[in-house]
Amino acid sequence: MPRSDENPVITALKASGRYKQPLGGGKHAILCPWLHEHLNQIDNDAAYFEPNEFFPLGGFKCRQGACAHRRVGALHDFFEISRVAAKHKPSILVQPGEIPRICDVTERELAKTFRHYQRGGVIVTIVTDPSTQDSTVKQLSLAGLIRAVAGLAVWQRFDKRSNGWVICDPPEKYIRVLHDATSYPHLPLLNGIARQPYLRPDGSLVTEPGYDLETCMFGVFNADDFKIPLTPSRQQAEQALAVLSELLSEFTFKTKQDLAAALAAILTATIRSSLPLAPLFHSKAHSISSGKSYLCELITAFVTPQRGTPHAFPADDEECRKILLAELLTAPAVVEFDNLTTDLVPHKSLCTVLTSEFISGRILGQSKTAEVGTRTLFLSSGNNVDPVRDMTRRTITITLDPTCEIPATREFRKQPVRDVRANRGRYVSLALTIIRAWICAGRPKTECKTIATYYEWSDLCRQPLLWLGLPDPAVCIFESISADPDREQLGMILLGWRDRFGNEAVLIRDALKRISFDDELWEFIRDIAAEKDGSINKNRLGWWLKRNEGRVVNGLRFVRDESSRGSVKWKAQVL
After folding, report:
1. Helix H segments across 50-123?
2. CA dihedral 400, 402, 406, 411 (to 10 degrees)
3. Second label for 7, Cα 20 to 30 Å away, from 91, 148, 230, 282?
4. Which of 272, 275, 392 is nearest to 332 (CA)?
5. What residues are paired with 116 via a beta bridge?
6. How far is CA 68 from CA 44, 325, 569, in A?
7. pTM score of the predicted model
8. What is the torsion angle, in degrees rounded to the nearest 10, for the CA atoms of residue 305, residue 306, residue 312 and residue 313?
9. What digits encode the pLDDT tens for the residues 223-272?
């Protein structure tokens, strides 16, 4: 039963000529119904307050002493308005056999608040930590959902003894059905949280906080902190770039490409909520205290006003999936893996979040599977560790090289992290100015190598820097692919296989018989498939060949011989 268009108390006040005017914030000036009891019948500016979450029946206040004892209940009794009507809420009547309708109308009322959303197949809300002021997405528990829907409507059940409808609490069985549903047709979708102005797909800027229907993002920022020109020019972009480059002036980047990569990371952090996909940024150095973690801290300051909470790099994919799903459910601004002691290995779940807009998995402690968005900035750092295999094309590496024996002894004049946090609106606005200037200039494209999957990122975070004359920040991707040790290993085995067998297709067991122990090819095969006793595991070698089948290195690739039947024969084919 929907609520009336107008609050019934206000309707009654108007009908009786006792309504004066709205005062804003749900407060209304009225003529006190008990004016005749006032001293000298003086009108002392009585007021009526509409119901809210703290005062579900509303409020009444008259400053005349004769009315000091009167509360809003007296006003309701005066106009003969029931408690149900006084709440000015829709009513949900609990009737047997109406589970689908009850759940449907409950979800509709929940959606109207724009305080509850669906994300990854679960009902969520946005909460702000009062101590840190950090806003995160939080899944509603069953108890939390019951509390939320209890305040949305007046729940009633039919009482046989009184032969009428009486107020009740939301029955758990109905709310459980809604809580455990697999889809929510009415709740608005929440893609993530934006902590500064962000871009729509057409390049326009969202400068107001709150929920945006087009992007399904929720902005949690003060619009007054950010000053971005409506149509910035190239000159303004160059000035903004100079200021951002000055922030990085005391970092000892190995090459100019590394400086460009750090600036690309800043642009990516600024508009990460606008990008469906973005690569991971990895800060690398040869020794401790080179500024890797501090650089990550600076980049983090452009994506959120809060400090990051780095994780240890997961040991296996199962641990990685648990960490990522738990983090991404809350829509964090950044996920950082700090102080890696091993190479950046391609855990399947990590590869997925870097090249897919969503990741799915079972929620810890529940039987429900969630699919959550991946619009989060990913950072990592470590000494002499690199991305390998599938991570090479998903990672922008920023190399720092202090070129001194003890980097920790260096002295610095500036504190860029402190400066950005103290005046974050200014620095974020500068980064947005660069991107918007490139868009306003007609999106001019500088010729460069294409990076599969990251087309939008390349346009918005790579092309503006190329347009302003910087070297390509993504050069490191192609260098990492070429220098990948797995690729190098495959290349050496292909060359050795081709030299030993030519264009002949051979069985694995026959190949091992024909390779001498002092052959360099034997040493590479041992690295792949040797057992503890020194023998070669044929199955492991076969699996390795299958995994690398068709991968081209130095103009060669492993292919299966199509004419063979039964056992698989392999040959190194020249392209």
Report:
1. 72-79, 83-86, 99-112
2. -110
3. 148
4. 272
5. 125
6. 12, 56, 97
7. 0.80
8. -30
9. 999 999 999 999 999 999 999 999 999 999 999 999 999 999 999 999 99
Beta bridge mates, 212: 217
Are the CB atoms for 348 and 324 separated by under 8 Å? Answer: no
Residues 349, 359 contacting (CB under 8 angstroms): yes
Cβ contact 215:197 at 8 Å: no
Q: What is the pLDDT of residues 53-65, one digit of tens each?
A: 889 899 999 988 8
Quickly count: other Cβ atoms within 10 Å of residue 320's Cβ. Answer: 22
Element (H, E) at 198: strand 198-199
Q: Could you give the dihedral angle defined by the CA atoms of residues 250, 253, 258 and 259, in that order, rounded to the nearest 10 degrees?
A: 20
User: Please, what sign has the CA dihedral across residues 364, 365, 371, 372?
Assistant: negative
Contact assessment for residue 275 and residue 363, using Cβ atoms and an 8 Å cutoff: no
Q: Are 356 and 374 in contact (CB under 8 A)?
A: yes
Spatial contact of 326 and 318, defined as CB atoms under 8 Å apart: no
Helical axes 538-547 vs 520-529, angle rounded to 10°:
90
C-alpha 284/C-alpha 425 separation (Å) is 28
* 522 CB-side CA count, 13 A: 11
* pLDDT at site 54: 85
- Give 156's DSSP letter: E
Residue 427: CB atoms within 10 A of its CB come to 23
Q: What are phi and psi of 386, to 5 degrees?
A: -135, 160
Closest among 187, 119, 203, 190 to 148, alpha carbons compared? 187
Task: Please report which residue ranges of 301-415 form alpha helices under DSSP H.
Answer: 317-328, 348-355
> Where residue 206 falls among pLDDT bands split at 50, 70, 90?
very high
Dihedral sign (CA 239, 243, 244, 248): positive
Whole-number Å distance between alpha carbons of 490 and 389: 11
Asked if 299 contacts 265 with a C-beta cutoff of 8 angstroms, the reply is yes
Confidence of residue 530 (pLDDT cuts 50, 70, 90): confident
What is the spatial distance between Cα 124 and Cα 349, in angstroms, rounded to a whole number? 23
What CATH code would you report for 234-482?
3.40.50
**Cα gap 318→154, rounded to integer Å:** 45
DSSP category for residue 50: -
Do the strands 59-61 and 46-49 form a parallel or antiparallel pair, or are they unpaired? antiparallel
